[in-house]
C-alpha cells in the first residue's frame, strides 16, 4: 500500500511515522520548506520526502493520500488526485483506524482549545490514561504510533473534519458556530456549518453529541438534519431535562440520571462563554464517570490557555490582557463582553471577511480607545471611527503597547483581541501574543 502525505508539518510527519510503522510504502511531499527538525525525523525513520515541489509521478500513484489541514481542496495536485478517485483523507481519519482508544472530538468556531484543554485536565485529574491531540501539541498519528493511551481528547478544525470518511468520536462537542474561514468554503456559510457537523455523521446511538443549545446555527441544523447520537445540550438561557444549564449562580448538569452541581463563583475561568466551555467539559467528565469532587476541584484550579484572555501583568493599576487567539469577530465579542473596566482595544490583522457590526454595542459601552495594528486598517476605521474618541494606527507591537500606556488611566484594561489572522505582521497568533507579552514586560 502506497501512502502519500501532502504537507511536512506536525500532522504530516506524525502520519508518515505511523504509516511506516504499519508497513506502508510512505512518501511525503511539501510544496513549501520543511523545518529542519522534521527533516531529521523523516530521514532517521527512512521516510522519503521532497520539499518546494510536488512531483506528480511520485504522488499520483498513491493508494491513499493524507492531506495536511492547511492545504485547500482547490490546489491542483488535490484536484488531480480526486479526478483519479484516490482517497484524500485527514490525519485523524488515517490514525483512528490504528487505535482502539475512546476519542472525544471537540469542534466549534470558538472555545475549542479552552474546552479541549479543560476536558483533558478533568479526565487526567480523574486518573484516566489520556492523550491530547488534534490541533494541539503532538499529532494524533504520532501519538498512536508511539503511545498507548486509553482515551484521546482531540481538538478538531473544520479542515480536519472535511477529510474524514469513517472516523467517529464516542463523544463529540460542538462549542458554537459563527462565520470563520469562509474563504475555504466558497464564502458559503452553510458549507462551513455542514463541515462542523461532520463530527457527528458516523456516530451511533451509543455515542453522544454535546452542543450549545443557545446557538442559533446549531439549533437550525439539528431541526433540519438527523444525527444518531444521544443529544446533550448546554445552555445559559433554558433549563433542559438532560444536559447542563445555569440556575442563578449554580451550574447544574443532568447526565446518566445523575445530578452534578457547582457554584459558578468557584470556577476558575471567567466570562459567560467560559461557563459554557466548563459545562461542555464537565458533561464529558460525567459521561466518563469521573468523581464529582474531582470535577469540582479541576474546574476550580484550571489555569486557562495561553493567548486566550490571558492576564499578563498589572502595571500602575492597568491590566494587560492577551487574547491573541481571537482571530475572528465572534471570539473578540466574547472578550469585549467579559471586560468590566474601560478598555483600550488593540485590533487588526488579516481580515477573513469580517463583519464588525455585531461588536458595535460592546464598543460603545466599553471601549475608550482603539489601536489598529495591521497593514490595512481601513475597514476597522470605517466601522468604529465615529464610535470611539481616540483611534490610532501603529505598525508594530511595541508601538501598540507604548501607545496603550499613554491612553490608559488607573483601573483601565488594555486588551489585545485582534479579531483577525496575524499573517501580515507576525508568524502566527502565538508569535503575536508573545510579542505583546514581551512588550508589556518591557514597559
Automatic annotation (TrEMBL):
ATP binds at residues 108-114. It is found in: Cytoplasm. Residues 307-420 form the Mur ligase C-terminal domain. It holds the Pfam family Mur_ligase_C. It comes from the Bacteria. Gene3D superfamilies: Mur ligase, C-terminal domain, Mur-like, catalytic domain, NAD(P)-binding Rossmann-like Domain. Residues 106-285 form the Mur ligase central domain. Pathway: Cell wall biogenesis; peptidoglycan biosynthesis. Its main location: cytoplasm. It catalyses: UDP-N-acetyl-alpha-D-muramoyl-L-alanine + D-glutamate + ATP = UDP-N-acetyl-alpha-D-muramoyl-L-alanyl-D-glutamate + ADP + phosphate + H(+). Its EC number is 6.3.2.9. The keyword Hydrolase does not apply. InterPro entries: Mur-like_cat_sf, Mur_ligase_C, Mur_ligase_C_dom_sf, Mur_ligase_cen, MurD. One of its GO terms (molecular function) is UDP-N-acetylmuramoylalanine-D-glutamate ligase activity. Keywords: ATP-binding, Cell cycle, Cell division, Cell shape, Cell wall biogenesis/degradation, Cytoplasm, Ligase, Nucleotide-binding, Peptidoglycan synthesis. It is an enzyme of class 6 (ligase). GO terms for biological process: cell division; cell wall organization; peptidoglycan biosynthetic process; regulation of cell shape. One of its GO terms (cellular component) is cytoplasm. Belongs to the MurCDEF family. Cell wall formation. Catalyzes the addition of glutamate to the nucleotide precursor UDP-N-acetylmuramoyl-L-alanine (UMA). PANTHER family: UDP-N-ACETYLMURAMOYLALANINE--D-GLUTAMATE LIGASE (PTHR43692). This is UDP-N-acetylmuramoylalanine--D-glutamate ligase. It comes from Flavobacterium orientale. The gene is murD.
